[in-house]
């Protein structure tokens, strides 16, 4: 569902004017860690949520026809020409969210990809100390996002994670990798994950999904 953040502007319906600073309107879009709407000098930045993805729309006066999107710190930045209409912008945001999700899903598709990702994460955050013997997607996990058997070195990820942002999948993978080194959820365990900057955001994302879907899924 697209939440048209620009509706939050209410009576402030004019296009932003160059060189003028506008106050922030946007109380109507709640639950976001940022302002729902922000207008800065001549450039407008809109934050919204589309299909569970936090989107930042940037209108660029330099951009003529092309629309592009990239991931940045857990959100999807969509760049659109400043002259684009609101309706077109809404369509494009939806399209780009779907495209990026599809491409991320393709990238996360195989168990082999997951195993490679696990090794990369282990190298980056755990000095390569966690070396799983197997990493695979499973569809039979009802109460957990991920699980592992340290004695075997095996890690399983719920396929409910498929299609979620890669930084969320990375967090669950890293969580299970850390369990290969440290059982339980004591301070030593969380210390292993300290380097992962999106830790709290990923945990919040999963809690949100669990609550919204009425699932009793935990990340512990
Ligand atoms: Zn755990």
TrEMBL record:
It comes from Terrabacter lapilli. Residues 138-196 form the YgjP-like metallopeptidase domain. InterPro entries: UTP_pyrophosphatase-like, YgjP-like_metallopeptidase. This is YgjP-like metallopeptidase domain-containing protein.
